[in-house]
């Protein structure tokens, strides 16, 4: 049981490049979400999904796209990377049957945009 | 954007000391309040899930209380140990269960 798997762990991009951060979970969780973590800011919600085909914006969605074609996968796309997107990104999922949306986190992906 | 505040930002205590942290959150649209423990180079892990006003949870030497009417939760650690060193995050769940806003965390260092 792998839990929540994020790839890549580290990535360096140049301004304007695009990339996708992958997130997969094998726990059959309905809810998946992406956060970014910046010094002094805590974890901020970028996008979330309550099931396949359903996504919505969080606190800081600008510059990011998501889709949810399967229950297992929730990729985060940066279409034109900017230095302000340098951050550590965490994917998290939860099973709504447990109530209260308790999150299981991936190991994080550190992105640097030059 | 909701305001979830944690205090203090950081804390250094001696081994054996007891300590507590505060999480303040909006008193409306409450669904749940979580506490997570985040060790360096790892991912946050859930400590407590609190859903009812007056909830009290306990796990070993760590306990938490919840007051939804006034919008705060306390986390207590009794007899701190070096392995308790971590950042403790609180998370306010609202919008049904769908949105989660984290505080900036309290970084605890327990000195042997």
Summary keywords:
heterodimer, A: mainly beta, seven-stranded mixed β-sheet, 11 strands, B: 112 residues, mainly beta, six-stranded mixed β-sheet, globular
Indicate the topology.
The complex is a heterodimer of chains A (114) and B (112).
Chain A (H helix, E strand, L loop, with lengths): L3 E4 L2 E4 L5 E7 L5 E8 L3 E10 L2 E4 L6 E3 L9 E3 L8 E8 L9 E2 L3 E5 L1
Parallel strand pairs in A: 2-11
Antiparallel strand pairs in A: 1-3, 3-8, 4-5, 4-9, 5-6, 7-8, 9-10, 9-11
Chain B lengths: L4 E3 L2 E5 L4 E6 L7 E7 L6 E6 L5 E4 L2 E6 L4 E6 L8 E9 L4 E4 L3 E6 L1
Parallel strand pairs in B: 2-11
Antiparallel strand pairs in B: 1-3, 3-8, 4-5, 4-9, 6-7, 7-8, 9-10, 9-11
Question: Short description, anyone?
Answer:
The complex is a heterodimer of chains A (114) and B (112). Chain A is an all-beta fold.
Explain how this protein is built:
The complex is a heterodimer of chains A (114) and B (112). Chain A has 114 residues and is mainly beta. Chain A has no helices and eleven strands. Chain A has strands at 4-7, 10-13, 19-25, 31-38, 42-51, 54-57, 64-66, 76-78, 87-94, 104-105, 109-113. In chain A, a hairpin with a 3-residue loop joins strand 4 and strand 5. Chain A starts with a strand and ends with a strand. In chain B, 0% of the residues lie in helices and 55% in strands. With 112 residues, chain B is mostly beta strands. The mean pLDDT of chain B is 93. Chain B has strands at 5-7, 10-14, 19-24, 32-38, 45-50, 56-59, 62-67, 72-77, 86-94, 99-102, 106-111. In chain B, a hairpin with a 4-residue loop joins strand 7 (62-67) and strand 8. Chains A and B meet through strand 4, strand 5 and strand 10 of A and strand 4, strand 5, strand 9 and strand 10 of B.
